[in-house]
Amino acid sequence: MSRIDAVCVGETMAVLTSPEALTEGTRLGVGTGGAESNVAVALARLGHRTAWVSRVGDDPFGRIVTAAVARSGVDVRGVEVDPERPTGLYVKDTAPGGAGVLYYRRGSAASVMSAADGEKVWSRGPRLAHLSGITPALSARAAALVECLLDRRSGNGALRSFDVNHRPALWTAREAAPVLLDLARRADVVFVGRDEAERLWGTPAAEDVRAALPEVPTLVVKDAGYGATCFEGADTVFVPAPPVDLVEEVGAGDAFAAGFLSGLLDGLPADLRLSLGHATAGEVLRSRGDTLDRVPDEVRRIRAASSSGRG
C-alpha cells in the first residue's frame, strides 16, 4: 500500500433523516454520519490522500456507508465487514417537537474495533492519524485502539490528531473527563470546544484549557461563533469566526478540524490554518449535510494568498 497523508479512525453510522416529526410516519432519507470519516472526506475534498479505518456490519447500511465515503475519494480498504454485528444507526428527528437525535449503536460492528486494528493505520505510513473521543466511549476494546494509536513508540513519526468530541449520549462528563484529558495529553494536535472543555475540566477560558494541556504541541480551542485560538509553544494565535447564515451545526467541528489539518499538512502558519478551519466549517454550517460537499471559494483565496506570500 502506498503512503497517504492522513488516516482517520472511528465509527461511521447510517443516518435516517425525517423532514417532519417521526411520529407523522413520513418517509426517511438515508445518509451517513461519523466524525472521523467526515474529516477524511473533507481532507480528500481539499486535495489530500486520505483513508478511513473502521468496521461496519454485513448489511445494507454498512454497504451504503462504505460506498458513500469511498465516492468522496477516501481509501476504504481498511474498513472491515463484520458478519455478526450491525452497522450503527442514528435518526435525526429535528422537526419542531421532534425527538432530536436518536442513536442505535450499542453492540455495533465498530464497537469491537481493537488494538489489532492499529496495523491497518500504520501499514499506510501516514503523515497523520486522526482520532476522536467518541471511539473510547464505544467499548473497552475500542478505547484500547485509541491508546495504542496514541502510543509514541509506534507510527514511525506520524502526527497524532485528537478531537476531544465528548458525546454526553455515550458517557457522562464525570466519566469522560479524566479519560479524555489523559488521551489529549498524548496527542500532537488537539481540538476541543471551549464550552466542552469547561463542562469536562472546569476550564472557562482558552488560556485555562492551555494550562490543563501544557504539553500538547498544537492545541486548538474553538469558541463557536466567536473564534478559535491556537496555542503552539509560547505562541498564541486567535482568529475570529466570520458571520455565517446558520442552517445546521452537525459536522461543522469535523470540517473545521479538516481545514486546520489541511493547512498543517501544507505547512501553513497557524493564522491561515485557523482561517481554513473557519472557511470549511462555514460551508457545512450553511448546509443540511454533515460533510464538506464542495471546496469554498474562501479556501481557494486563502491558499492563493499563502502561495503568493511565499513567492
Automatic annotation (TrEMBL):
Top-level taxon of the source organism: Bacteria
Limits of the Carbohydrate kinase PfkB domain: 5-292
EC number(s) reported in the record: 2.7.1.45
Molecular functions per Gene Ontology: 2-dehydro-3-deoxygluconokinase activity
CDD domains: KdgK
Gene3D superfamilies named in the record: 3.40.1190.20
Keywords: Kinase, Transferase
Pfam families per the UniProt record, alphabetical: PfkB (PF00294)
InterPro entries membership: Carb_kinase_PfkB-like, PfkB_dom, Ribokinase-like
Family: Belongs to the carbohydrate kinase PfkB family.
This protein's name: 2-dehydro-3-deoxygluconokinase
UniProt organism field: Nocardiopsis metallicus
